[in-house]
Fold:
Amino acid sequence: MMSDHQPSEASELYADTFHAARKAYAGLGIAVVVLWGVYLAASYGLLYAAAYLLPQFYEQWWFNWVLNLVPLYVFALPAFYLCLRRVEKGAHDPHYTSAGFVYEKPRFHIGHFALFAVISFGLMYIGNIVGTRLMEWMSGIMNYNYENSLNSLSESPWWMIMIGTVIIAPIGEEFLFRKLFIDRARRYGDGMAILLSALLFALFHGNFFQFFYAFMVGLVMAYAYTLTGKLYWSVGLHMFMNFMGMMIMPNLAKWLGLGGMESIDSNDTQAMTQFISEHSVGYAVLILLSLLIYAAMGAAVVLIIYYAKTRKIYLGSGECPLRSEDRAVAAFGNKGIFLCIFVLCLLMVMNLIPTPTT
Structure:
């Protein structure tokens, strides 16, 4: 008699777990929608308040930073946290399953960090190439010159870029999309928590220039967090990437004395040859660094394939594991995540609408 009830009881218990997972993922999706909504409302509120009360602020370099940082961390983050209070947190899973056996995840050390940094750097450039080429193609179709929103921030003083993009942004974004988000999503498995964290993190950037590399690098940073349970590793990776992407690489040609090369017509072979001969050392260093970038891109692809084939990507199943065929259904088959992806994708597409010219 008892054996007849055991299968139904087990199936009912699993059905409850599946339902709880869908509900939790839906809550996470709604929380991200609220995060973005409050961020937009606060941004436009500050923008229009400045327009009517203090219009001279528009000409100040720091106003762009106010519009980026204050709405997100002063207004949107608390709202995001309040929404997430309804979603139960999960503990860090120090184990993973392979071939039916349970093992402990390896200890993360500085060697792992260096390896992850190389992979992230390579993926950043791969994603940047994809995003840039896509927007160049869109510029041709729409007959409109799309510009990366980061360009306006790069004109700020170096110390503000260091504080804003290398320190504040990595800490804040990792706290939002890794600490707060993954802590709730990982109850049902590391894999889906990593995927959702990276996807929504990339969509939150709101443009195709940044989407692809934010998604790729976001996967690495989310994996580093689920692997270690320590936020400082993913924050360190994020700081390294922003430091390289916003401080080092944009200024490299200038530091090597090659800033004037951009003003030379590429079809003027004689002028280009003369410039290179006069700056041969700097040009050689630039070529070497360019080769290192391509090497990092190749290394990122090779290493990811290697670790995937050798099953050295360690993903915990979580406190409430789901069957492999149910994980995607639970994560994406709910109104909250659907609404979140729809809204963020819609906003990205709306950003492609050319600004009317007077």
